[in-house]
Design a protein that fits this description.
seven-stranded mixed sheet; alpha/beta; six-stranded parallel sheet
């Protein structure tokens, strides 16, 4: 493998000149730069990224700790983070916390020890000593999707409150009155906020939300299956189950079908976090869609702003209700066909104009 000394000999310049060329120093004459680059190409020289990082104190690497790599939402989020980071000249190392705080801390410790330049984290709980220590130590960090209230870290998230309001209005218009929710862990912002948004939307229509119609899951399919079975066994079961993430919705669908019930004829089903195959289920599932790709890209841009010495901003992007047939099919307007999927702009903000908040700590909302 060629070394920098081989390149210097081939171009008949000093090692220092080769280094200046490779680092884009403006003082190098064009003809010298051309000779050096020709030698680099001819010898197949590749700079030692590890050695360069020791000199510059930068690794051009970002860490991403996500809550569950098997959740299609986080898979898409990770893909958009990688794409945006690559466009800015960064690589990404991904850690899967699997909704476990101890595993989250393991990944944070490992990534910091490997001297990544900055961290993107979707916290699995209300905070941990290690994560808070990293914030206090000045590790550049951005929270994405979830956040820790009171911690001074930029947050990039979606606001689903308006979409939840639209969902409840849609359900009410279809005649549904006994609505239930399978929520995520109350220790996560997305777990508690979606219950609050659902309860507030029901109150606007004069509908109650008894404790018995609130399921407590963990964003995993098994918990959706378990809580849906419990809801269906109530003396007065709900006529709608709203699962607060896509995997719990799939678990709920299993429980509904295991009892021989039909969707939506016997019970309606809706989900937070749309996924590509919801349109292919029978019936297609009504869901709240987040701008997942833009969330990942915005989070990377916020972190790079921090790394480059600019003030990073928290970004709030609107979620959107996508109406399908799993809650019942309203009659189409006169002369119009009924689409399999129809996005409904939220009352909170139009999807074409995503708002950006300069606040470092977000107001209450949903993933």
């Amino acid at each position: 493998m060629a070394s920098i000394k081989d390149v210097a000999a081939g171009a008949e310049v000093s090692v220092a000149t080769v280094s200046r060329v490779l680092n884009g120093h403006p003082s190098v004459r064009p003809d010298t730069r051309a000779r050096v680059m020709a030698a680099v190409e001819a010898l197949g020289y590749r700079p030692n990224a590890v050695a360069r990082s020791l000199r510059t104190q930068q690794t051009r690497t970002l860490g991403l700790v996500i809550s569950d790599v098997l959740n299609p939402y986080f898979t898409e989020l990770a893909r958009s983070v990688e794409d945006e980071a690559r466009a800015h000249g960064y690589s990404v190392i991904i850690g899967n916390a699997d909704e476990q705080p101890a595993l989250q801390d393991h990944h944070i410790r490992t990534l910091v020890d490997r001297r990544i330049d900055g961290l993107l984290v979707s916290p699995t709980d209300g905070g941990s000593p290690l994560m808070l220590d990293a914030v206090r130590a000045g590790v550049p960090m951005v929270f994405v999707d979830r956040w820790i209230p009171g911690v001074d870290v930029p947050v990039v998230r979606s606001d689903g409150r308006g979409a939840v309001r639209d969902l409840v209005a849609h359900l009410y218009a279809l005649g549904h009155r006994r609505l239930a929710i399978i929520a995520g862990p109350a220790t996560t912002t997305t777990g508690s906020e979606r219950v609050d948004a659902f309860r507030e939307a029901l109150h606007e229509h004069g509908l109650p939300l008894p404790d018995a119609r609130i399921g407590h899951g963990d964003f995993q399919a098994d918990s959706g299956r378990r809580e849906a079975a419990r809801l269906l066994a109530l003396a007065e079961p709900p006529d709608v189950i709203f699962a607060a993430d896509n995997l719990m919705a799939l678990g709920a669908m299993d429980a509904i079908r295991a009892r021989g019930l039909r969707i939506p004829q016997d019970i309606a089903l809706a989900a937070f976090d749309d996924i590509p195959w919801f349109v292919h289920t029978d019936p297609p599932i009504t869901a709240i869609a987040q701008p997942t790709g833009e969330l990942g890209r915005a989070a990377v841009r916020a972190l790079i702003d921090r790394l480059d010495g600019r003030e990073p901003h928290s970004a709030i992007l609107p979620a959107q209700l996508v109406v399908r047939r799993s809650c019942g099919e309203p009659p189409p307007a006169t002369g119009a066909a009924s689409p399999a999927s129809a996005p409904v702009p939220t009352a909170a903000s139009p999807a074409a104009q995503p708002p950006v908040s300069p606040a470092r700590t977000p107001n209450r909302s949903n993933r």
